[in-house]
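stuck on this:

***
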Amino acid sequence: MRHRSGNRWVPLGFRPWAYCLLGWPNSDHAIDTTFEGCALALGWFGNAWWTVVMTKWFWKRRLTTRALLPLLAAGLVGWLLWGDRLSARAGSGSGKNGLVAAVQRGDFVDELHARGELDSSNNTEVRCEVRSLNGQWFRIIDVVEEGTYVRPGDFLIQLDPSPLHTERNRQMIVVEQARAAVVRARTAYESAEMAKREYLNGEYALARKTIERQLKVAENSARTARAYLQASRKLFAQGYITHQQLEADEYALKKAESDLQFVQTSLRILDRVTKAKRMADLESYVAIGRVNYDTAQFALSRHEERLKEIEEQIEKCTIRAPVAGEVVLCHLHHYGHSHMVQPGELTMENRVLIRLPDPSRMHVRVKIRENQVSQVRSGMSVRMTLEAFPEVELRGEVIKVNEYPEPADWYSPSIKEYMALVSIETPMAGMRPGLTADLMIRVDEAHDVLQVASQAVLTRADGDYCIVAAGGGYRAARVKLGANNGRTVVVEEGLREGDLVVLRPSAVLDQVSLPE
């Protein structure tokens, strides 16, 4: 078994004993602490004795188990104390006062860690569509089990329709009363129409014919009296009749003309006054009857619509799936509490009861803190894992970042977070809304750049420095840095590939000159 030290391969069995005997030689790759040397010596002491003991046990079979246990424990403790430091030094050396690491060239990746929640980009909300009567609540009787995959028309929720049944019975009585009112109004309207026709075709026509007949008689009497008067005047001039007979004929003519005028006046009054007045009354009755009839019909139609609406609301008490999807039950928030949708709970109109997400179109809703939102932009690539499936890595992309922060929580009003949507380019079976996702958003990347560990950088007033181990000593190198991902930082100027920088520069500050 060998360990690589710089460019040399040294047998592991030789190196610890050499360190102990030579007193920790001063080199760029020497062990840096006394504790580490003691642990190394203890470990290899146990390993050496373990090798001897096992050899004797295999060949001679004489050593008992009681003698093996202390040696085994010593070797195990030494190996545990030394193993981590041995593996940590696989890619780097150590200075006499601090660990060193080589400046390397490679690809730089800066990723932002965030946690989000899976949601569907095509999320159908199933709401309570039953209209509340005077703020009335509706009790949930039955609910489909969450996670059930339903198709359009499948049963979801049953609400208690008994209040609506009571309302429907009352409304049916109102509808029947409205129908009776329509019948009465129609009868009154038809009677008014009939009275109008009866007057025009009966009473008025008969009265006019009577007056017309009287008018003809009066006209005939007037013509006769006029002819008699003319004849009487000729006879009176010839002396055949007396003056009294002439006056009698003149009076008869006047009476006939007076009767004619009376009949003519009666006809005019019948046509212009009596008929008009009677027709106005009859037409008003007809109009009132029409209005009452129309009003009764309108009231009936409204009451029937209300009855139909109540029946529709009763049908809506049985909520069915509008689209296919997997059932996700919602929470009902009232009276200061949050309750899962379940039998016995109360709901009102327009409350969201169930969501039916489309599992084939999922995205992640993630909240980005205020100090990180400037780093995240649309189009950035994302890799993620779901807590339900930690072994599967998914790929995605940032769709958008909201311009305004989310409403602050009452317990942390000063923390501002911005909602971002991340698409999932590689969906998998079993994804469902609400699953927690760990996301690594790639905010920056560079190819073939020099990089150094972040802890190797010292910041001073005039700039950044790294301490380089070279020639058995140390020197301070001023560097110009680029992007930093918290582990490594891009070096733009000041270092070269392969330079050894001290990872704990505070341990060697007394050996270099740096500005305060």
Remarks:
- Residues 1-37, 61-66, 79-93 have pLDDT under 50 and may be disordered.
- DSSP finds five helices and 25 strands in the chain.
